[in-house]
């Protein structure tokens, strides 16, 4: 990382990061949550204006610093016309800041409410409130800066524009890749990662083109960009495959007259990442199906087989409800096929073989 004066990145306690980024963000987080008084919201009646007053206090420039544009901290932020409008906005804000749904759903619901009611769905504002609601687990998003950042790392996505969780996930995935890449400097939290990303984004236009490397040299930044782009594509295809199977299962059950079962189809891997399968669906008689989805972008890749983790193999070995559904051509005309439990019985002409070894202390 090139810092403001050209010093190399030496760790998460780098003076530039601490003094100009990390410390003030921790202070803004503490001050913002104190200003919100979230522990009192449940006792307040939406529509009486108290939630809006707390939001305005948390968005004041003296609290939020440069995490938020002054549009939301000036003399006339979050103005609504009447009691019904106040009640609607306070209800939406209450669900966003304290609701039980996954933060991604709450994020999208609140952004959509702001759009529908012409209140300005702005990246800095919505991500700042998510930052406060999650106690720093979600980081703030300067959209134009981070647009340049994802392009710098070779990720073919856009952040600026419509505020939605899928775009934030691109940044979250990038942050996780950077966390792993920089783990030798110590494990980093979301505030540290966002600060690193901000400083890198600020230097993109200032950093001269690196000299050409010889065949014996490795451009590690270019290598990282390539790996991130490939990993992002795999993640996108995998998630799109899971969505395809989930929606297909719901449609099949509804067509068969089992709306009750269709309503219970769920993405199990979201809530239980180590359960060993992706989607919980149902037979028409109500028996569960535990579906591990394996997705490829095209037909050619599909014929090469797919990977099972050791956890997936163990679950498949023990769980009679477990099966693999293969999704092919997710990038064009997707189609799926159930392969059954491939741990118990492989399709003709297929073999199950170990692919890696773990080395550790005994």
Task: Write a brief caption for the model.
By secondary structure, the chain is of the alpha+beta class.
Proportion in helices:
40-55%
User: Topology as H/E string?
Assistant: HHHHHHHHHHHEHEEHHEE
Percent range for β-strand residues: 5-15%
Strand order of the largest sheet: 1-2-3-4-5
Low-confidence stretches: 1-5, 69-78, 212-216
Biggest sheet layout: 5 strands, mixed
Gap from first CA to last CA: 38 Å
Return the average pLDDT rounded to an integer: 83
Rg, rounded, reads 24 Å
Number of domains: 2
Total number of beta strands? 5
Number of H- or I-type helical stretches:
14
Describe this structure in words.
The chain is an alpha+beta fold. The chain has helices spanning 15-36, 50-59, 61-64, 83-98, 103-116, 123-133, 143-152, 165-181, 190-203, 220-255, 259-262, 268-271, 299-302, 310-318; strands spanning 266-267, 279-282, 288-295, 322-328, 335-340. It folds into two domains: 10-206, no CATH class; 231-340, no CATH class. Strands 1-2-3-4-5 form a five-stranded mixed β-sheet, with helices on both faces. It is globular.
Keywords for this structure?
single chain, 362 residues, alpha+beta, 2 domains, five-stranded mixed β-sheet, 5 strands, 48% helix
Per-chain topology:
Blueprint: H1 15-36, H2 50-59, H3 61-64, H4 83-98, H5 103-116, H6 123-133, H7 143-152, H8 165-181, H9 190-203, H10 220-255, H11 259-262, E1 266-267, H12 268-271, E2 279-282, E3 288-295, H13 299-302, H14 310-318, E4 322-328, E5 335-340
Parallel strand pairs: 3-4
Antiparallel strand pairs: 1-2, 2-3, 4-5
Helix pairs in contact: 1-2, 1-9, 4-5, 7-9, 8-9
């Amino acid at each position: 990382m090139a810092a403001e004066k050209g010093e190399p990145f030496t760790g998460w306690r780098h003076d530039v990061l601490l003094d100009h980024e990390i410390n003030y963000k921790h202070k803004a987080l503490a001050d913002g949550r104190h200003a919100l008084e979230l522990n009192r919201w449940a006792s307040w009646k939406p529509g009486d204006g108290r939630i809006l007053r707390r939001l305005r206090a948390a968005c004041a420039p003296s609290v939020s610093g440069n995490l938020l544009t002054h549009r939301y901290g000036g003399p006339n932020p979050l103005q609504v016309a009447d009691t019904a409008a106040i009640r609607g906005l306070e209800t939406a804000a209450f669900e966003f800041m304290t609701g039980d749904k996954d933060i991604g759903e709450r994020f999208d619901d609140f952004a959509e409410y702001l759009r529908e009611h012409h209140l300005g769905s702005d990246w800095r504002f919505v991500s700042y409130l998510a930052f406060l609601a999650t106690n720093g687990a979600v980081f703030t998003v300067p959209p134009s800066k981070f647009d340049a950042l994802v392009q710098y790392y070779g990720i073919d996505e856009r952040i600026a524009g419509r505020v939605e969780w899928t775009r934030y996930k691109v940044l979250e995935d990038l942050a996780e890749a950077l966390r792993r890449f920089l783990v030798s400097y110590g494990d980093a939290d979301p505030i540290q990662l966002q600060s690193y990303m901000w400083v890198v984004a600020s230097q993109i236009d200032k950093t001269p083109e690196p000299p050409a490397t010889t065949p014996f040299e490795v451009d590690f930044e270019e290598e990282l960009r390539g790996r991130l782009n490939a990993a992002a594509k795999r993640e996108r295809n995998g998630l799109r495959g899971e969505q395809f199977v989930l929606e297909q299962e719901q449609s099949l059950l509804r067509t068969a007259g089992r709306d009750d079962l269709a309503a219970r189809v769920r993405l199990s891997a979201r809530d239980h990442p180590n359960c060993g399968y992706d989607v919980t669906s149902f037979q028409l008689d109500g028996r569960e199906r535990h579906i591990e989805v394996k997705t490829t972008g095209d037909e050619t890749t599909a014929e090469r087989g797919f990977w099972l983790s050791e956890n997936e193999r163990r679950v498949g070995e023990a769980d009679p409800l477990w099966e693999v559904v293969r999704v092919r051509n997710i990038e064009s005309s997707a189609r799926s096929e159930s392969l059954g439990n491939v741990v118990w019985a492989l399709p003709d002409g297929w073999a199950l073989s170990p692919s890696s070894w773990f080395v550790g202390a005994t």
